[in-house]
Amino acid sequence: MHTLAEMAEKLNRPVLHLRGLQRSFKLPVFKSAGYSDAYLAFLETVIALRTLNIPEKTLVRLWRIERKLMRLLNADTRSSPTWFLDACGTRRNHKRRLLLSNFDTGAALPSGAIQLGLAFTEPHKELFTSREMGEDALEVLKIYLDAYADIRQTAEAELPRLFAALSITKRFAL
Q: Is the pTM of this model over 0.90?
């Protein structure tokens, strides 16, 4: 477990910057050493994507889509106050995982398919199902894949500048 100050040091960002990310992404705030490795991994992912010139508002939009998609896929929302972050930092099956939350969808995402009906936990009983309310996991997945494609295109366009910046760092090597 980490404190906010420890995470700021590891991420080479001021605490105020991390507080801003917590506010933007509506992340839970903990006292003292209440932040998990997964929480740190999420912030690291966001900062890495910002380094690739992905706008924060684009990432916040993707984050909202991912959380909606996780709920539609019956993610276990009751086991942890950070249920939406708990898979962050996982390194296996990356083609089946959402970009920010690292949630495993059960199928490779570029295919545009997901395993519907997976029950990670017993869902709350609602008066109407999500589908009856107009929400469909496949529709949300399409929105997610479109947003993901835009982020990927922006990141790929930024790579030459990133490599140029890295080559300059050779001057600073001791």
A: no
